[in-house]
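Good morning,

Attaching, inline, the backbone tokens for the sequence recovery test we're adding to the shared suite. The designed sequence is right after.
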């Protein structure tokens, strides 16, 4: 959703409010300070009203067991117009929670693995001259993953240059103006970096919400989100907002773009992937760096997703029995049913005639008519599947 559409959505939302004095004050506060959102539950209770007890769900992923997945992406070009180019993300993250291993590929075009040296992003590049009949490219990558938990995080020191890199501003993540002002208000009263990260995480959960109508994973245009007060979005919006707020107050943070590959072991349907068909399973997570504790897993966007979609009713309290374990765990942890592609922003694709990418989480293709719509896998004709081995 671009800036204009966000403003239109925000205006429609405001007009739909009954303009009582209280609601007028809320909207004026949003417009003037950027510290509140138009979230329908901006003032939701933190404790549940008395009612029939609902059993609390369990969501407690713990590290220790590595899982191995093979992820396959296939692209078939249905309409050719001159030279066609395709770029496919390849797992590029190796850490204490993921091991990116070998990849194999086939194609009737010219293919080779490419690496963006600045951001360590690997990709498969395929080029098809106009005469190639039924162009296709397919890649299978093997990845090992494991769960993460705050209590089991391994403290590691990080290179100062890396930490500086992950506090920089990008095209979609400015770190000044309304972004910095919002973060400064969110962390008021927090002293340590861990307290500041917690304050920003809680602010995101309280003010942002999952908006199912947003295409794909969203765009991550956090300045427009804050200026309009429309903090509804998906993972690339909500977790980008978390990352941008952290960076604006000097805390290194980064988006981690990837794919949810299998169901959750804890029965959460909205935190699951269907291995046979992973179209639409792309998911962005986040990390924040705390001195003495290292990179901590973060995923406020998945908290918002569970609140909005896990049950027929939109849950508007993080203390609800369905939400609480997810809210608690996704500060510092996540489930290893997901693989990471990369952590890139503002990526220039080699040989591309199109604009640079805000992030690289989907297959990308283009021909003489321009860039394909990556959010329409049936039109673009790509398929993604996985199997655990």
């Amino acid at each position: 959703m671009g800036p204009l559409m966000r403003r239109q959505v925000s205006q429609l939302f405001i007009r739909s409010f009954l303009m009582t004095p209280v609601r007028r004050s809320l909207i004026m506060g949003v417009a003037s300070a950027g510290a509140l959102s138009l979230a329908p539950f901006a003032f939701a209770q933190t404790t549940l009203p008395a009612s029939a007890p609902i059993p609390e769900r369990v969501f407690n992923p713990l590290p220790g067991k590595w899982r191995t997945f093979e992820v396959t992406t296939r692209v078939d070009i249905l309409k050719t117009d001159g030279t066609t180019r395709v770029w496919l993300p390849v797992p590029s993250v190796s850490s204490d929670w993921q091991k990116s291993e070998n990849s194999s590929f086939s194609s009737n075009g010219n293919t080779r693995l490419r690496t963006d040296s600045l951001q360590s992003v690997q990709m498969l590049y395929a080029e098809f001259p106009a005469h190639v009949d039924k162009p296709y490219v397919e890649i299978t990558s093997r990845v090992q993953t494991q769960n993460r938990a705050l209590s089991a995080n391994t403290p590691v020191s990080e290179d100062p240059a890396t930490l500086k890199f992950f506090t920089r501003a990008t095209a979609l993540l400015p770190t000044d103006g309304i972004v910095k002002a919002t973060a400064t208000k969110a962390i008021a009263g927090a002293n340590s970096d861990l307290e500041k990260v917690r304050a920003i995480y809680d602010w995101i959960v309280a003010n942002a919400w999952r908006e199912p109508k947003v295409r794909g994973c969203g765009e991550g245009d956090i300045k427009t989100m804050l200026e309009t007060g429309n903090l509804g979005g998906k993972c690339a919006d909500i977790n980008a907002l978390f990352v941008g707020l952290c960076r604006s107050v000097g805390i290194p943070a980064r988006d981690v773009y990837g794919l949810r590959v299998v169901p959750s072991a804890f029965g959460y349907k909205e935190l699951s992937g269907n291995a046979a068909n992973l179209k639409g399973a792309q998911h962005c997570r986040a990390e924040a760096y705390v001195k003495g504790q290292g990179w901590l897993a973060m995923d406020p966007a998945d908290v918002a997703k569970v609140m909005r979609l896990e049950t027929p009713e939109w849950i508007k309290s993080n203390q609800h029995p369905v939400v609480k374990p997810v809210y608690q765990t996704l500060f510092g942890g996540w489930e290893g049913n997901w693989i990471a592609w990369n952590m890139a922003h503002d990526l220039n694709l080699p040989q591309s005639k199109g604009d640079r990418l805000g992030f690289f989480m989907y297959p990308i293709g283009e021909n003489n008519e321009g860039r394909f719509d990556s959010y329409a896998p049936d039109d673009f004709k790509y398929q993604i599947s996985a199997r655990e081995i």
